[in-house]
Amino acid sequence: MEIDNLLDELYSYSMHGIKLGLENIRVLCNELGNPQNDYKIIHIAGTNGKGSTSTTIETILLEAGFKVGKYTSPHILKFNERIRANGKDISDEEIVKYYQLLKNIIHKTNIKPTFFEVTTAMMFKYFSDLNLEYVVLETGMGGRFDATNICQAEICVITNVSLDHTEYLGDTIYKIAREKAGIIKNTPKVIVADSNPDFLKAISEEKAEIVNVLEKYKEAKKILNFKNFLTEIYIDNEKYEFSLFGDYQFKNFLTAYEVLKELGIPNNIIKSGCQKVVWQCRFERFSLQPLVILDGAHNVDGMTELCKTIKQGYTPNEVVFITSILKDKDVKHMLSIMRETTDNIIFTSLKENPRGTSGEDIFNQLEDKRGALVENDIIKAFEIAKNLNKKVIIICGSFYTLSKFKEEINEKK
Fold it and tell me: 55: closest CA among 293, 249, 287?
């Protein structure tokens, strides 16, 4: 099959909807010989920070000489980004090979798995065939009934919890944290980066030792270097130049650091590796002339952290935002945070996405409309932003917005 046709077929499993449960993934993995048992797993759940934390751990384990896989979602430009082994995305040929394997199993067992279940099973088998030593495994949603939770982890991480996906996971921090804590199972230790009492109560009920990096490393310091866009972090008089930039990356680094220390990775390897971490769409410098920042801030916590960072380097009259936000998010709250950070906002459209909406719909939810306008064509919105001659253009609000921008700007080039 040509890769585009195959991916269309794979995406068609999304029509089965989101089904939280382990029955289908158990069937698939049993048929594959339970490949999820063939390597050490660092299992990571949380509302925000999973991707940055996962990529930092992956990069530094590679720096230490291990054979490492990483599984993340969503992808930005290509499906291949979701499944990475030894620093490289899975190839189109390997996607074809492992999808055909799963397709045969689905036909044989007559089950109806979701897109995420099929993709997760493909990943487990691919990593097993490569004889990897470590796999950094992100949950898709929640934890307890997430398809990734068929594995037994070496170390569990729950970065934090905020109110997101409430229709599936619960409508309070405690309920959502209980679902994410489901990944802990028999793991003796869980690493967290959140001090919310309801969050900690839910995690403590799993009877694992909690290592809260916000407490353990409360003497650690950070400086945002806006000249080189580095997060400079100081732990026990040691300096780490972290290539991922932002206030929120401090917590992500501490989380990854604690995992790596648990695994016995020496400081010199952490120091060299943390300078090489690359994670697109997390305060990504897309261009320098003009300075264009892409950030996947897609919920209230993400927007809060992004704007906290922006305020430390720029005044509101130096910043223009281009944004579109999915309609199932807390749009008004996100806009109020954005409004404090910029004098100019350009609203663009994501109407082609079932969860998306038009620029007009978001604009109408903005209370203070000064300096705000609508341009549903994202490339035209970008041209308008450049003509405002601000110091920095921020494109944010959804990973779908960033994906759309990258695809359309590349087509134009």
Answer: 249
With a cut of 80, say whether residue 236 has pLDDT above it: yes
pLDDT band at 15 (very low <50, low <70, confident <90, very high): low
CA distance 389 to 403: 24
Sign of the alpha-carbon dihedral angle for 281, 283, 289, 290: positive
CA–CA separation, 198 and 201 (whole Å): 5
- pLDDT tens for 148-205 read 999 999 999 999 987 655 555 667 889 989 989 999 998 889 999 999 999 999 999 9
What phi, psi does 308 have (nearest 5°)?
A: -60, -40
Distance CA 151, CA 32 (A): 14
Q: Which two tokens stand for residue 86?
A: 């030894």
Beta carbons of 336 and 307 less than 8 angstroms apart: no
pLDDT range class, residue 412, cuts 50, 70, 90 = confident
- From 218, 199, 213, select the one nearest 261 (Cα to Cα): 213
- Do 258 and 52 meet the contact criterion of CB atoms below 8 Å apart? no
Band of residue 139 on the pLDDT scale cut at 50, 70, 90:
very high
pTM passes above 0.90: no
Stretch 31-41: mean pLDDT, rounded? 98
Average pLDDT over residues 123-128: 98
Q: Reading across the β-sheet that carries 344-347, which strands appear in turn?
A: 284-288, 291-294, 392-396, 319-323, 344-347, 372-374
3-state secondary structure the chain: CCHHHHHHHHHHHHHHCCCCCCHHHHHHHHHHCCHHHCCEEEEEECCCCHHHHHHHHHHHHHHCCCCEEEECCCCCCCHHHHEEECCEECCHHHHHHHHHHHHHHHHHHCCCCCHHHHHHHHHHHHHHHCCCCEEEEECCCCCCCCHHHHCCCCEEEECCCCCCCHHHHCCCHHHHHHHHHHHCCCCCEEEECCCCHHHHHHHHCCCCEEEEHHHHCCCCEEEEECCCCEEEEEECCEEEEECCCCHHHHHHHHHHHHHHHHCCCCHHHHHHHHCCCCCCCCCEEEEECCEEEECCCCCHHHHHHHHHHHHHHCCHHHEEEEECCCCCCCHHHHHHHHHCCCCEEEECCCCCCCCCCCHHHHHCCCCCCCCEEECCCHHHHHHHHHHCCCCEEEEECCHHHHHHHHHHHHHHC
